[in-house]
Amino acid sequence: MNKKNKGNIGAKRNAEKAAKAAERRANDIANTAEDAAETVKDTAEDIIEGAADAVESVKDKAEDIAEGAENAVEAVKDKAEDIAEGAENAVEAVKDKAEDIAEDAREAVEAVQEKAEKAADTVKKTAQKAEKKAENAVKEVKQTAQNAEKKASSVTQKALSSAKNKKKSNTNSSAPVLPDVKVYDFCSKKRMILGILIGVIAALLLGIIIRGVHLAIEFKGGTLLSYSYAGDIATSEVESVVKGVVPDTSVTVRTGESLSTGGKEMTVSFTAKEGLSVDKQHQITEDLKAAFPNQNLELTDSNDVSPSSGREFLLKCLIAVIFAAFVVVVYIAFRFRKIGGWSAGVCSVFALIHDILVALAATIIFGFEFNSNIVAVILTILGYSINNTIVIYDRIRENRSLMPNASLNELINTGCSQSLTRSIRTSITTIGTMLIVSIVVFISGYNSLLSFSVPLMFGLISGTYSSLFVAPVTWSWWKNKENRK
Could you tell me the pTM of the whole model? Predict the structure, then answer.
């Protein structure tokens, strides 16, 4: 046997050994696997048995919990019923308590009301007593004021006399004699005066633009109808009836007494460039008779006024005003020649122009006609305002002798301060009278008189202001400007 065969036989033996070893190893693994499978099977059976026991335990526990929950629900239901019953009882108790409180409150209100009525009666009686005491006190104060005024007048006269005597005895003394009055600085109000003047002019221009200027029959021409009547008649109602016939024409109604017969007379005027036709006049008369059947209206006169005569009347009024202003300047220049002369007169006329502008502005803004009433208002304001101005100038002239070393501004401030109380008291009396007249005329329906009372009231207010501020302060500005030059 050669070497090659020996090698094959050895390899075969080795392979057989290895196969046997592998077979044994496979049998061992199979046995181990069978043992492991048996072990897993036993473990799984144990787990299944434990799970079944756990499910039974959970089921029993759930049944116990469900039974406890049912018991808890029953307990809560019983508790809720007890609470609801307690709440109903509480509501009933609160309701009874509220009724008791309401009854007590009603009784308290009645008691308070009764006390309040008693207190009101007491207060009323006390107020009546206080009013009587106040009236007595006012009378006593008035009497005391009158006595004090008399004493003050006597003291003033003595002081003036003493000052004059002192001046004569000591002409070289330079100390001024100051009056016993609180002096206000009027001369520093130049800007205020200028602002008010600009405001007056602006109001006049706006009134002319917005409201227009309504000239009466005396200045524009038209027709004048006169009626006799009996009883009482309201001019506003007559005006409304007439405007129903001539709606686009300005109508003015006045009432009074006839100079010839002494009976009641009503005048209806229409401002127009052409006269009113006969048919229109007849229709107006018939409508007035129908509207006032118990007044026995009868047409007594009918006249047409031409515009030329109105223009002539207006021109004469302007000439009269200009002539009056010239006379005022000459009079003031002569009377007060020692303190300013003609410059004081010019400033007083400037103040009068300011007052006239105020009266015209009031006439236009309130929609009154420019008629003879306005002319009367202007003339009245001129007299009232120039009188106040001359009184103040006279004070300044007296103070010049009492205060020889005082400046012009000091003299003006002192004179205006001395005249302030007198001017205010006089103005309150006259302006209050015009206010009462305006109210009575407006309530009674005699609107034609308002074109006189209302502008006059504003003119009087302006006259008081211009006499204290416009004339003297403007004069001060003029003289100081001359001195600076």
Answer: 0.55
Q: Which residues contact 255 (CB under 8 A, 6 or more apart)?
A: 233, 235, 264, 265, 266, 267, 446, 448
d(CA 162, CA 4): 184
CA–CA dist 297, 289 (Å, integer):
6
Q: Position 309: which residue type? A: S
pLDDT, tens digit (0-9, with 9 covering 90-100), for 176-189: 444 566 788 888 88
Q: Note the CATH number of domain 222-305.
A: 3.30.70.3220
Name the pLDDT band for 173 (thresholds 50, 70, 90): very low
Backbone angles phi, psi at 228, to 5 degrees: -100, 145
Q: Which of 421, 440, 434 is nearest to 460 (CA)?
A: 434
Instruction: Take residue 18 and report the two structure tokens written for it.
Output: 């290895």
DSSP single-letter state for residue 276: P
- Give the relative orientation of helices 408-444 and 471-484 as an angle to the nearest 10 degrees: 150
Q: In what order do the strands lie in the sheet with 222-229?
A: 250-257, 264-271, 222-229, 298-305
Q: Which residue has the higher pLDDT, 275 or 27?
A: 27
Domain borders along the chain are 17-167, 183-214+310-484, 222-305
The predicted-structure confidence for 277-322, as pLDDT tens digits, reads as follows: 778 888 888 888 888 888 888 888 887 777 666 677 778 878 887 8
For domain 183-214+310-484, the CATH architecture is Up-down Bundle (1.20)
Cβ-Cβ contacts under 8 Å for 410 (sequence gap 6 or more):
183, 403
Query: 348 φ, ψ to 5°?
Result: -65, -40
